[in-house]
Every structure is written in structure tokens, then in C-alpha cells.
Amino acid sequence: MKKTASSKDAASEKISAKKASGTASAKKASAKKATAKKATAKKAAAKKAVPVKRQAPAKKPAVAPKKATAAVKGVAPAKTVAPKQPRDESRTALVRRARRIDRELAEVYPYAHPELDFENPFQLVVATVLSAQTTDLRVNQTTPALFAKYPTPEDLAAANPEEVEEILRPTGFFRAKTKSVIGLSKALAEDFGGEVPGRLEDLVKLPGVGRKTAFVVLGNAFGRPGITVDTHFQRLVRRWRWTEETDPDKIEAAVGTLFPKSDWTDLSHHVIWHGRRICHARKPACGACPIAPLCPAYGEGETDPEKAKKLLKYEKGGLPGQRLKPPRAYLDAGGKPAPPLAAG
User: Fold this and answer.
1) Are residues 133 and 218 in the same domain?
2) Are 240 and 316 within one domain?
3) Of 7, 181, 218, 274, which has the fewest Cβ atoms less than 10 A away?
């Protein structure tokens, strides 16, 4: 009986041990399944996730050239202003902008004229030749003595060169200028009866007379339109991007297509006056410029209004915006002196 009971107990123990081991293995299997599910889920999430790119280090801000940013004691640096007009503006837009600039300048300089004193075509052509490499003011201080002693081409043609040189000495390059004015006077006396010709092809044959001088004479002595391309004119039309040409003849041709021929002479005066008074070569007075909104080069000079005002040049004719007096005498279509207009 004891053996039978003990065998029964052993059997029951074996059965319960098998059950326990089965339960443990089942738990282990379920745990493995759970771990596998978690790993699969992680892999799936990793595939779906967008990889994060590393940000490149921030670039250093561009630094303007030292010339533009150099600090001057007591003076604020000039503002950097983007050009108002793109280089690829249409032809129509360029024409409209150019003509608007001329209209604005016409209001600022209502009496713009040649700043050389003259009473007849002969005096004008001589004064214009003498104005090379010097100021109009210096020429105006010199020509009264010259014309008082040699009032006609015949008189100057027969002059003693040394005496003429002494009169012209203050204008600089006086030997070359003496040779030119005596030479052109001889040509006028011998080839044109002592009269200044009114045609471009004749004027440019005179010693010392180029297209610039010829157009000054044609426009202001004979009322025939012409564009005077001096250093001021060249500088400003390039700043305004009317043309990128550098040769005076090509500049003349390019600008001439932007305006009616009847405007050419007055246009030349407006541009030259503006170049002498406001839009200087070295430091333009941008902050005092009446056409600043139309200028692609705004910001090349002083933009502060108060500081810009100090850069304005006081020349014959006063300051911009004043009702300026006209020259001493205009000439009629025949080249004879006409009474000066009353100043407004």
C-alpha cells in the first residue's frame, strides 16, 4: 500500500512539474514574441522617419569694400542704396526715364546756358577753344582783354603770338591755345570771309575745333541743335545708364536717339550744369540731388541731406533752384547779338 501511494505521489509530481515547465516555456515564448514585435516596430518607425540633415554653418555676411565703409571721424558712413533701375530695363523705360530726368533738370536750371561770356560767334568759338583744361570763370576773366585788343578774326590772325601768349597765360597751355586761336582766325579770314561758318563740316576744319566745340557754337550761336559731350556730360550719362559707351562720338550718337533733336542743345546745358553743381566727379551730393529717385548711381556720394548741401558748388549763375540770370547776350538765328532776356 505504501509503494502504491508513493508511486502515485511521484506521478503527480511529474505531471505538475511538466505543467510548470510548460507554463514557463510559454511565458518565455510570449516574451520573445513581444520583444520581436517591439524590434519590428522600431525598424518600421526608423524607415518612416525623415532623416534630419545637418545644418551648414552660417556664412559670414558680405563685407563692403573698405572704401565704402571706412569710418571718418565725426562723419557717418554713406548709406548703401540699391540701384533704382535694373540694367535690363526696356528701351521704352529708358527713354521715359531719360526724358523725365531732363524735365526735372529744366525746372532746376531754367536759365541754363553756356557759361562763357560772348557777344558774337567769333568770341564764342575762341572762348570755347580756350576753355579746354581750365574753368569757364578763368576764361571769362581772360577774354575781355583779348577781344578788346583783337576784336575781329583779321585782327587776331595778324597778332604777335608772344603778345597773345601773355594774355592767355592764366588759362594754362597758353602756347598751344595761342597757336589754335591765331590759326582758326587765319582760317576764318582766308576761307570764310571773316565769318564763323554755320555748318558742322566747316567748323571742325578750324584749328583747335572738334565736334564738342562745333556743337557749342552751332547750338548757341546759330540755334542749330547739337549735343555737347564734355567731361561732365560723359560722366553723368554713364551714371544714369543712358549709355555704356566711352567714346565721345558714340556717346553723342547713343544719347541723341533718346531725345528729339530739338532738345539736344538745352539737354547739354542741363546735364553740364548739374555736373558742375551737384553730381561731381569725386563726391556727388546725392542727398541734395533733385533727380535722386531716378538715378541708378544714387549712394555713390553723400546721402545725408545736410552734409550733401555743403558739397554744392557755388558757380556763376548761383545755386540750383534759383531763378538764374541769362547770359550777357544771346544771338539770333543769323548770329547777331540779341538783347538778353529779362531775369525772372
Assistant:
1) yes
2) yes
3) 7
